[in-house]
Design brief:
- It is a single chain.
- The protein has helices at 16-22, 24-27, 38-58, 72-91, 105-116, 135-141, 164-180, 203-206, 255-268, 272-293, 320-329, 339-342, 349-353, 358-361, 375-389; strands at 4-5, 66-69, 96-100, 121-125, 146-152, 187-191, 210-214, 225-229, 298-299, 310-314, 332-333, 364-368.
- By secondary structure, it is α/β, with parallel strands linked by helices.
- It folds into two domains: 4-13 and 271-389, Aspartate Aminotransferase, domain 1 (Alpha-Beta Complex), CATH 3.90.1150.10; 16-269, 3-Layer(aba) Sandwich (Aspartate Aminotransferase, domain 2).
- A seven-stranded mixed sheet has the order 2-8-7-6-5-3-4, sandwiched between helices. Strands 9-10-12 form a three-stranded antiparallel sheet, with no helix packed on it.
- Helix 5 links the parallel strand 3 and strand 4.
- Helix 3 runs parallel beside helix 9 (255-268), helix 4 packs parallel to helix 5 and helix 6 packs parallel to helix 7.
- The longest helix has 22 residues, at 272-293.
- It binds pyridoxal-5'-phosphate.
- Pyridoxal-5'-phosphate binds at residues 71-73, 104, 106, 152, 156, 191, 193-194, 214, 216, 338-339.
């Protein structure tokens, strides 16, 4: 049977070249990078080279600003909990956090748990119907004890790109005023797990204090991710122990995965402009062809300012589960929502967060494209969809 994978936002295959390059760290240069002998040194060279690459490509100022973790979920937990713990320890009263209603569960649940434990005050900003957060709405929630603002960069279910630079700029101005009043600086974090290959991740241009990036969404292996942390900000580790990663993430580093992560980023990130135009062509073609066979289809979230790899469509006459299963039987892999919430089989909360109905949330499907996706594959998917909906 033919197979077409259209779920690149859930995960991507490891690039062949990347896979070949990382292999030696499994069985040849397999040492523990903290060991002093030759094997350890070889592994350390691999680890250091990955850190240097990320420092350069993300335009970080110092190597210690790049902290490797095991996943974007871990990175997000570390940033939020690490900052909250420092605050609680120093101030002995609750900090306030501002985030949005369109975050990935790894942010949403972390914040919810801290709130339920009565450790933080929390405000969540809603997007407009097109799926964008207005920086002014964030500003409206700022309080004296605001510690952190966390906003997703590319929304993982609908693909809208949030105005990260604008929010950072506004927070810089607000922080200047706060400093004069003797108030704490508000930190800004963006979860860029879905932005890894398509958006500008230049830290100095973006103006963020923290950023999350993941390997398996960008043709690297699973098991590696990173946190960019501005050098002078104090944070407590989630994992304590011998003190790897500048004392901020104990545990032996997953050198093969981290090395592969860096190789994938080095290979694809600098080519994002040309890759984006290819992905945009795929997305536009797919949407136009679907409109021909099913004119009632509607896009969830705006098309402008959206990431080229994600397209979320509403099929008013069909339950998404039904289409998904039929596509799967024909060898086509797509998602209803974020991979993490699919098994819960709930209507997608992101579609609801846009202000749409339960019904629309249950009739929406996410298609996500990759660099290996071809027009020919897409026309096979269109032909199959035609059969399903006729
Ligand atoms: C925006 C975003 N953040 C975080 C994650 C979590 O990634 P992981 O499950 O690899 O930890 C995902 C995964 O889909 C994501 O899309």
């Amino acid at each position: 049977m033919r197979k077409v994978y259209l779920d690149y936002a859930a995960t991507s295959p490891v690039d062949e070249e990347v896979l070949n390059e990382m292999m030696k760290f499994f069985n040849i240069d397999f040492g523990n990078p903290s060991s002093l002998h030759l094997w350890g040194q070889k592994a350390l060279i691999g680890l250091d080279s990955a850190r240097i690459k990320f420092k350069e490509l993300l335009n970080a100022k110092e190597l210690k600003e790049i902290i490797f973790t095991s996943s974007a979920t871990e990175s997000n937990n570390f940033i939020i909990k690490g900052l909250v713990f420092v605050w609680l320890f120093k101030k002995r009263k609750k900090p306030h956090i501002i985030s949005t209603t369109i975050e990935h569960e790894s942010i949403e649940q972390t914040l919810e748990e801290l709130k339920n434990l009565d450790l933080i005050e929390l405000d969540l900003v809603s997007p407009n119907k097109d799926g964008f957060i207005d920086p002014k709405n964030i500003e409206n929630y700022i309080k004296e004890n605001t510690l952190l603002v966390s906003v997703i960069y590319v929304q993982n279910v609908i693909g809208t790109i949030q105005p990260i630079k604008e929010i950072a700029q506004r927070l810089k101005e607000i922080n200047k005023e706060r400093k004069e009043k003797g108030l704490n600086e508000i930190y800004f974090h963006t979860d860029a797990a879905q932005a890894g290959l398509t958006e500008n991740l230049n830290i100095q241009e973006l103006g963020v204090d923290f950023l999350t990036l993941s390997s398996h969404k960008i043709y690297g292996p699973k098991g590696a991710a990173l946190v960019y942390k501005r050098a002078d900000i104090e944070i407590l580790p989630l994992l304590s122990g011998p003190g790897q990663e500048f004392g901020l993430r104990s545990s032996t580093e997953n050198v093969p995965a981290i090395y592969g992560f860096a190789k994938a980023f080095e290979k694809f990130y600098p080519k994002r402009k040309e890759n984006n135009s290819y992905l945009f062509e795929l997305k536009n073609y797919f949407l136009n062809e679907i409109k021909k066979i099913y004119p009632k289809v509607q896009v969830n979230g705006a098309l402008e300012n959206s990431c080229p790899k994600i397209l979320n469509l509403y099929f008013p006459d069909y339950l998404s589960q039904e289409i998904l299963i039929k596509l799967d039987l024909e060898g086509i892999g797509v998602s209803i929502s974020s991979a993490c919430s699919v098994r819960a089989s709930k209507p997608d909360k992101i579609i609801l967060a846009l202000g749409h109905s339960q019904e629309r949330a249950q009739k929406s499907i996410r298609f996500s494209f990759g660099l290996k996706t071809t027009f020919e594959e897409l026309s096979y998917v269109i032909e199959t969809l035609k059969k399903i909906i006729s």
